[in-house]
Amino acid sequence: MADIIDGRAVGEEVIEKVKRLTAELTAAGGTNPGLATVLVGEDPASQVYVASKSRKAKECGFHSVQHTLPADTSEAALLELVERLNADRSINGILVQLPLPAHVDATKVIQAISPEKDVDGFHFINVGKLGTGALDTAFVPCTPAGCMLLIERVRGKDLSGLNAVVIGRSNIVGKPIANLLLAANCTVTVAHSRTKDLPALARSADILVAAVGRPEMVRGDWVKPGATVIDVGINRIPAPDKGEGKTRLVGDVAFAEAEKVAGAITPVPGGVGPMTIALLMANTLTAACFAAGRKRPAF
Ligand code: NAD
Predict the structure, then answer these.
(1) Is the CB of 212 inside a 6 Å radius of any atom of ligand 1?
(2) Sequence-ordered list of residues with C-beta below 8 angstroms from that of 194, at least 6 positions apart, any chain
(3) Which pLDDT tens digit goes with each residue over 50-66?
(4) Would you state the torsion angle of the CA atoms of residues 62, 91, 174, 187, taken in this order, to the nearest 10 degrees?
(5) How much is the pTM?
(6) Which of 143, 209, 258, 287 to pair with 225, CA 20 to 30 A apart?
(7) pLDDT confidence tier of residue 211, bands split at 50, 70 and 90
(8) Are 82 and 109 in contact (CB under 8 A)?
(9) Probe ligand 1: pick from 5, 14, 120, 170, max atoms within 8 Å of CB?
(10) Is the pLDDT of residue 30 over 80?
(11) Per-residue pLDDT for 29 more than 90?
């Protein structure tokens, strides 16, 4: 049976370190890190995400500001808010919660965020830094960065000689994870909806990352014995066994099958999920350290 990689515990370690370093930064005369979240509209999932990010920021000792705007907010008004936050010295990180309403050009808004405050790592400057291996100063997207910390726990920092297969090529998960694995010396293959014979490809992976959004697509016989399996997927499916209308969360990996074959595996929930918010806090602290002329803290 595989070792279960406990993302809640590792995420909590990251948060504890953020709290400690925040206290040190503040005691050394710096101001505490500031995180601004921007939510447009009333999407219930987005409301939950933004509320938990703001709460966690406060828990870390950050200056936390939440901007909640109506769904009909114009693109111009949103860009103006981003400009104001860019200029605000008490704010180190700006997070615009996606998705934005259809009348707003999300790319335009995200690219308007100052790269130094882009704690989501979506600005082209940060994407370019990650792509070229300029990791010292890059802001890396939170979920991929969290996945790497989990992989490091199992395999160490240098992944030389290992084959990694990433299923999914999105800009916010699949591609950045592939770049991080490459930077750690893995041999990386990125698979997607057009890939042929995905099960055979997946079986070649020492590190298998699933970031697709299809419940339990990766079966046990897709997993190489001893592989490290990172399940990024979060899918809500009906769970009639729990009662009428009830649901449960599952990943992109058929966990019960895969854990019999893998060497280590992340559960859903409790794997990658808690790492995402922890790395958002880590990125915000990093932005504050840079603003204070300090080096990037290690996580
Ligand atoms: P996305 O829809 O942007 O990308 C999905 C990718 O999967 C695409 O590149 C597509 O080519 C590929 N794909 C689709 N069907 C496929 C198939 N049959 N075979 C192979 N590849 C296929 O999704 P995303 O934003 O990258 O998110 C992926 C999953 O990760 C979702 O379940 C999402 O909820 C979850 N997610 C979790 C976290 C977290 O914090 N744990 C964060 C972000 C996303």
Answers:
(1) yes
(2) none
(3) 999 999 999 999 999 99
(4) -80
(5) 0.97
(6) 143
(7) very high
(8) yes
(9) 170
(10) no
(11) no
